[in-house]
Each structure stands twice: as C-alpha cells, then as structure tokens.
Amino acid sequence: MTDTASPHVFDVDQANFETEVIKASLEMPVLVDLWATWCEPCKTLGPMLEKLAVEYNGAFRLAKVDVDANQELAAMFGIRSVPTVILVKDGQIADGFSGALPEGQLREFLSRHVQPLEGGGNDQADDAPAETPEQAISRLQQAIATAPDQAELKLELAVALVQAGQSDAAEAELDTLPANLATDGRAVRLRSQLDLAHSLQDAPALGDLQQRVEANAEDWQARDLLGVRLLLGNDPAAGLEQFLAIFERARDWNDGAAKKRLLAAFNTLDDAELVGRYRRRMASLLF
Using CB atoms within 10 A as the burial measure, which of 18, 62, 144, 198 is most buried? Predict the structure, then answer.
C-alpha cells in the first residue's frame, strides 16, 4: 500500500483497473507503477514517482500495482522484472520503462507526455536540483552493498556510470549482468552508447570539432566525431544532423560510417519520436 495521502496516487487491483486506469486515462494520463515489496529498486523509484505526482498536481495520476498481489495484471502487461512503469493515455499504453531511473530521467520521461499543472504541492520542486550521475553512483553503490543479489541495481549503476563518463566502469558492470538483464533494452542501449564512446578516445574537444566543421564543411572526420559528442551529450538531434549530413553528401566515406553511426544512434536513444523522424529522413535519402 502507498503511504502518500495525495489524491493523485492510489492503489489499483484487478477489480478497479478497468475503471481507474483504462477509462480514467481517457480524461488524463495514468502512470502505472508495478512494484513488489521485496524489490529494492522499487523502494527508490516509488517515492520519487509519488513526489512527482504531487508536484504535477493532477497532470497525471499514479496507479500503484503490487505484482505479487495482482499477478493477473502483471501477466497482462507481460512483466518480467520490477519495477516497471507504464504510461496509459487515451485508453492505450503510450510509453514505459523498466528499472529505477534517476529523477532527472523521470522528469525527462514525463515531459514527453505531460506538463505540471499550476499550484503543485511541492513549491520548492523547481529549485531542487535533480540527482547528478555522481550522486546516483554513490546511492546505487550503497544499495548494492546492502542488496548484492539485486542484479537490477548493477544495470542502473551502469547507466549512471555512462552518464558520468566512466565508460570502462560501466562496461565492467554490464559484463557482470545475468543473461536475462544482459538482453534488457537498457543494457543493449548502453552497449551501443559505449561503442560510440570508445570512438571518442583521444578525440578533440567539442569546441575544436565545431571550429573544424565551420572552417571546412567537408571535414567528414570532424563531423563524425562532433556527431558522437553531441549525441552522447545534451543535444542528440544535433548529433544526428551531423551523421545525416555525411550520409547525404559523402555516403561512402570511411566505408559507409555515417549509416553505421545513424543505426547505432537509433539503438541508443529512447525518444521514439526523435528516432522515428530521423529514420524517415534517412529512408528518404535511400529510396
């Protein structure tokens, strides 16, 4: 059971799921948090989701599902691990993710679908800094020390390590994952990110690459490395633009590197709209 008194957070079971989630999502988005009492990552994710539900002040409702008590619901969603979060909108599943994401990524996920309403219960939320990758690493390392058998925590740690630029440490964590998590979508994305990050070894800084491209628009090597830096930084769309420019104007450069970069980039991004847009642009150049 949830401890919050917020009207935006509630427990759901098989009996009220159709009314409180499916039908209710026709009026406002419903975020379904599938969790379990024995799940350590759930204890991290649940309170963050509840805090955000209060902060968003009714822009979405948070439905909590105990998978052990509601195995039929868990089976309906095909749940293989917890926590799993699913966004239901207009009666349909619109998005979702598995694992305890850092607060910054939770906000990014929500921003793709909903915006906070005025008068939220957390007046200081905008001033509160999001968890940094370094803080996430420290939190997850402590959690792993407490629950070393929770392999899901190691995957989350690998995500935070990549975000902190610690590629070798992230790769080491990925190598320890059991088979069921090694093929998890997040693990596959991280492998692609690490492959891209390896190409930046000894690469010039972002500013230097930008100057090279401005001086010579056909400096394909600089464009390629600039695209990787932007993709792994805070501007993935700009990174894709660099790869697309090479693909359009020098498709055969470096044994078709631009096409390989684009396909690898699509595997690293979880923004379906962005990926779809650039897939269509790439396809328009192919056919």
Answer: 62
What's the rounded Cα separation, in Å, for the pair 40 and 53?
A: 21
Per residue in 167-182, pLDDT (tens digit) is: 889 999 999 888 877 8
Provide the CATH number for the domain around residue 223: 1.25.40
d(CA 160, CA 139): 10
Residue 233 predicted with pLDDT over 60: yes
Is residue 50 within 8 Å of residue 6, measured between CB atoms?
Answer: yes
- What is the CATH classification number for the domain harbouring 72? 3.40.30.10
Active site residues: 39, 42
The pLDDT of residue 123 is: 46
> In this predicted model, what pLDDT tens digit does every residue of 236-283 receive, in sequence order?
999 999 999 999 999 999 999 999 999 999 888 877 788 889 999 999
With contact defined as beta carbons under 8 Å apart, do 220 and 246 qualify?
Answer: yes
Q: Is residue 19 part of a domain?
A: yes
Q: Tell me the two tokens of residue 269.
A: 């991004």
What is the rounded CA–CA span in Å between residue 119 and residue 190? 38
Distance CA 152, CA 118 (A): 36
Instruction: Judge whether 159 lies within some domain.
Output: yes
> Do 102 and 145 belong to one domain?
no
pLDDT interval class at 124 (50, 70, 90): very low
Task: Answer yes or no: is 48 within a domain.
Answer: yes
Bridging pattern class, strands 61-66 and 92-98 = unpaired
